[in-house]
Each structure stands twice: as structure tokens, then as C-alpha cells.
Write a structure and sequence with these properties.
362 residues; globular; 8-stranded mixed β-sheet; single chain; 10 strands
Length: 362
């Protein structure tokens, strides 16, 4: 029987071949001794080389373990990872980020061991070593018009706070007491779970020592989809907890709806065309001006920032509208042939594990 870990890092991932190995290497380079923590990667049937990258890393680092997530979503991945965690504390890390400090795991474990039940962290977007469009995503998302107000993900202040926006680590007993993540949420599942943490009377300890930095989306469609899914998740949360309906999110959804309806109304009511034009001109004036200031008037970054604002607002607004009425959620779903191949791979892995006997970690 081997020593049980004191901290479990759970990574729900899907199609992260471009980033996953680097994140795993950063986690394995932490100052915390390897025998004191484990890394559980839960793969949502990736269609790229994610699983082979994880298995290659596991060959070098035995405390890395790969599990399959047949329900595909991040929420299900979180629950699967937590169910297999052997440590009393769980820290969630995504597959497309960078770990800011080599002492992050040691600092997180120390916070848990002194009595914290929930941890919160800054989660900024990377703006170095990325494309011009990704730089634009970073600067626009870190602006008043690009992110939900009141969020802690760009806050470097240390102290206790509401876990809602940036809760990332939990005492395992707390996670189990609250019933884990609601798998009806395909996005914003962490937000909904953190609301329940807050309603249970638990504050989060927020510390820049826990910082992870995220790779911005690479293109306009990817950013649009990301914000659509966020908006959809926020709308589901508002339907589940009516008191949590976000006024800014609802206002943005209404503006997107009006902007779509006014041109159609113009055929019956010509004044609608003028209203639509005025609305578009005002939006352009505000976003182009702010984008220029954020880009420091550099033309390529300025143009990219304008495109980012359009993707952010259109995606979040349409997603929120769709979530309110139960429309499509733009889910990540593997193709049928990929699913069949991975099911066979999963069955073979289970057969090998059964032939190998009991898990030596137990």
C-alpha cells in the first residue's frame, strides 16, 4: 500500500493536445513532493492527441492518472475526478492554462491544512507569446465591457471572498456534502456550484499564489462559441435560481434581441431603420473608441479588439437568450465514429486494469 496523497488535482479536459503536456509538466515541477499529490485527468472523449499526451506524461510521472468521461461535459468530468480522488482536498485545473508559480500546490495545500474549505484564484488571460488576436482577447476580456462586473478572476488582492466567480478548490467533504457539480450545466457549472458553496455559508480564500493564466481563444468563432456557452450557462443558473438573474447579462441579451428585430420591423415601420442605425452608430462609437485605447492605437491590435468585442457581446447575448428559452447550448459532442473508437479504447483499458489486479495505490 502506498502513501495516500494529501491533495488531488482534477483536470477535466477535451481536445487540449496543444496545451495539456505543458500544464502537466508545470504541475509535476511543483515544489510539493510528488508523493503528496496526485493528478487525475478526466478526458471527455478528445478527438486529438490529448489522451496519448497524458499517457506519455504518466509514463514519466506515476502520480498522473487518466480517466474517461463518457458524458463529455466539464461538469461530469469534475464529478468523475472528485469521485476517484484519494486526497481530502481537491483543486481543479484546466488543460489550457499556465501555472504561474512553482509553489502553487504547496500554497494551496497549506491553506487547506490551516482550515480553509474553499480556495479562489486570479485567472487572467495570457497576453505574452500569443497572436495579435489572442492579445486582443486578453485586453478586451480584462475591460469593463468585456467581462462580468464584480468578478474576482482579475483581482490580485489576498483575503476571504464570495467564491462565486473564482472558486477552484474544495475540501472533498464539502464537495460531497453539496452533491458535486450539477451536470445539467455544460458551461458555468463552476459558477452554479460556487453559488451553493456561498449559500452553505463558506467563504473562499483568494490568493494570487494560486494564479493560473489562460490561453485566449485563437479565432473569432472560438471566442464567439466560448461566450455563447457562458451566456447559456448563466441563463440556466438564472432559471434555476431566479434571484440570481444578472442585470448586465439580461440587458445585453435584450440589446442583441432588439438589434436583430429592428431591421425586420423596418419593413412595416420605417422609423425602426433609423433606430437601428442610431443603435449601431452608438455601439460602434463606444467599442471602437475603447478598443483603440486598449490597443494603444496600434492598428492591427485595434481592429482585432473591435472584432473581439463583437464576438463577446453577440455570443454572450445570444447564449443568454437561448438559455432562457431552452434553445441549443452549442455543446461539445464527439462524432459517432470517434465515440465508437474511444469506447473500444476505454473497454480495452478496463480489461488491462482488471488483469493487472487491485490498484496498488489503495
Amino acid at each position: 500500500m502506498t502513501q495516500r496523497p494529501e491533495l488531488t488535482v482534477v483536470m477535466p479536459v477535451r481536445n487540449e493536445a496543444g496545451h495539456i503536456r505543458a500544464v502537466l509538466d508545470q504541475l509535476c515541477a511543483q515544489t510539493l513532493e510528488p508523493e503528496r499529490y496526485e493528478i487525475i485527468v478526466v478526458d471527455g472523449y478528445s478527438e486529438d492527441a490529448t489522451r496519448s499526451d497524458v499517457l506519455a506524461a504518466a509514463g514519466d510521472h506515476p502520480h498522473i492518472h487518466l480517466l474517461y468521461n463518457p458524458r463529455f461535459t466539464s461538469g461530469a468530468g469534475r464529478n468523475i475526478g472528485a469521485a476517484h480522488a484519494r486526497a481530502p482536498y481537491i483543486l481543479f485545473v484546466d488543460g489550457h492554462c499556465e501555472i504561474a508559480s512553482p509553489t502553487m500546490l504547496a500554497s494551496a495545500l497549506a491553506a487547506f491544512q490551516r482550515g480553509e474549505r474553499c480556495l479562489s484564484r486570479p485567472q487572467p488571460q495570457l497576453d505574452a507569446g500569443v497572436s495579435v488576436f489572442q492579445q486582443a482577447v486578453s485586453v478586451t476580456r480584462n475591460s469593463a465591457l468585456g467581462h462580468q462586473t464584480g468578478s474576482k478572476i482579475y483581482d490580485e488582492a489576498c483575503g476571504h471572498c464570495n467564491p462565486l466567480s473564482a472558486g477552484c478548490g474544495y475540501e472533498r467533504r464539502l464537495f460531497e456534502e453539496l452533491g458535486g457539480v450539477d451536470e445539467a450545466f455544460d458551461a458555468a457549472e463552476d459558477l452554479e456550484f460556487n453559488l451553493r458553496v456561498h449559500r452553505a455559508g463558506v467563504e473562499a480564500y483568494h490568493d494570487p499564489d494560486f494564479t493560473v493564466s489562460y490561453h485566449p481563444r485563437r479565432d473569432w468563432r472560438g471566442l464567439l462559441r466560448q461566450l455563447y456557452r457562458y451566456g447559456y450557462g448563466r441563463a440556466l443558473m438564472g432559471r434555476k435560481y431566479p434571484g440570481t438573474i444578472s442585470a448586465p447579462a439580461l440587458g445585453l441579451a435584450v440589446l442583441v434581441l432588439v438589434a436583430g428585430l429592428l431591421p425586420l420591423m423596418g419593413f412595416a415601420w420605417p422609423a425602426a431603420w433609423a433606430a437601428w442605425g442610431a443603435m449601431g452608430a452608438t455601439y460602434a462609437l463606444v467599442t471602437v473608441g475603447l478598443a483603440g485605447r486598449l490597443a494603444r492605437w496600434r492598428p492591427a491590435l485595434w481592429f482585432a479588439a473591435v472584432r473581439c468585442f463583437v464576438a463577446i457581446h453577440l455570443g454572450a447575448g445570444l447564449g443568454y437568450l437561448s438559455g432562457l428559452v431552452g434553445g441549443p447550448g452549442w455543446r461539445h459532442t464527439p462524432r459517432p465514429e470517434v465515440r465508437r473508437r474511444i469506447e473500444a479504447e476505454r473497454s480495452q483499458a478496463a480489461s488491462r486494469a482488471a488483469a493487472a489486479g487491485p490498484d496498488p495505490r489503495d
